[in-house]
């Protein structure tokens, strides 16, 4: 039970770090800050729509810069499982940002 508690806290901390990383203050001050804030809000929404396992894998690799081996150790899964989760997360994110076709 104690391990579950620590694992949950670790995962929550990872997600908070990535959200802080995608909202840099400098980006808000730059020209086009409004547009940048909208893009970050869209990314937050898209990340929130991912299953927790896929979001964790993508955050560990894409935002926090861990190697696949390190990230697999943190997540407690095999490297192949982590790679599959990252791949699925990237496909889902790409689909969420793809333009939607209107039906006639």
Helix/strand layout:
Elements: H1 2-21, H2 25-29, H3 33-48, H4 52-63, H5 68-75, H6 79-97
Can you describe what's shown?
There is one protein chain. This protein starts with a helix and ends in a 7-residue tail after the last helix. The longest helix has 20 residues, at 2-21. The chain is globular. The protein has one domain: Arc Repressor Mutant, subunit A, CATH 1.10.10.10. The mean pLDDT is 77. With 104 residues, the chain is mainly α. The protein has helices spanning 2-21, 25-29, 33-48, 52-63, 68-75, 79-97. It contains six helices and no strands. Helix content is 77%, strand content 0%.
Annotation keywords:
single chain, 104 residues, mainly alpha, Arc Repressor Mutant, subunit A, 6 helices, Probable RNA polymerase sigma-C factor
In short:
It is built from six helices and no strands. It has helices at residues 2-21, 25-29, 33-48, 52-63, 68-75, 79-97.
Structural class label: mainly alpha
Proportion of residues in helical segments: over 70%
Distance between the termini: 54 Å
CATH superfamily placement: Winged helix-like DNA-binding domain superfamily/Winged helix DNA-binding domain
- In terms of quaternary structure, the protein is single chain
User: What is the global morphology?
Assistant: globular
- Stated plainly, the CATH topology is called Arc Repressor Mutant, subunit A
Strand residue percentage: under 5%
Low-confidence stretches: none
Number of strands: 0
CATH structural class: Mainly Alpha
Determine Rg (CA atoms, Å): 16 Å
Number of helical runs?
A: 6
How many structurally independent domains?
1
């Amino acid at each position: 039970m104690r391990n579950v508690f620590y694992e949950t806290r670790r995962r929550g901390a990872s997600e908070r770090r990535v959200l802080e990383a995608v909202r840099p203050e400098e980006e808000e001050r730059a020209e086009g800050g409004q547009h940048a804030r909208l893009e970050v809000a869209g990314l937050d929404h898209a990340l929130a729509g991912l299953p927790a396992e896929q979001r964790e894998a993508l955050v560990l690799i894409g935002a926090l810069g861990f190697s696949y081996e390190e990230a697999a150790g943190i997540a407690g899964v095999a490297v192949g499982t982590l790679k599959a989760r990252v791949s699925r997360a990237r496909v889902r994110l790409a689909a969420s940002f793809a333009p939607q076709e209107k039906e006639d």
